[in-house]
Description:
The protein is an alpha+beta fold. The protein has a domain at 8-48: Erythroid Transcription Factor GATA-1, Chain A (2-Layer Sandwich), CATH 3.30.50. 19% of the residues lie in helices and 13% in strands. The protein has one helix at residues 33-44, and strands spanning 8-11, 18-21. The chain has a two-stranded antiparallel sheet.
Amino acid sequence: MQQSSRNKTVRCPVCETPVMWSAGQRWKPFCSERCKLIDLGAWFDESNCIPGPSLTDSNPENT
């Protein structure tokens, strides 16, 4: 299937500003470096996480 030559618009995950999805958009899917760093900070402080069992609870090397 061939991609269309039109650029798509997505919403910034942080502030929901429309963002062109193109090679020239430096911060995609974010609208700016600020929004990118806000999202990264949420991962660092564990506000964002991927659900699943804790790896530290089931590590056989610690038993």
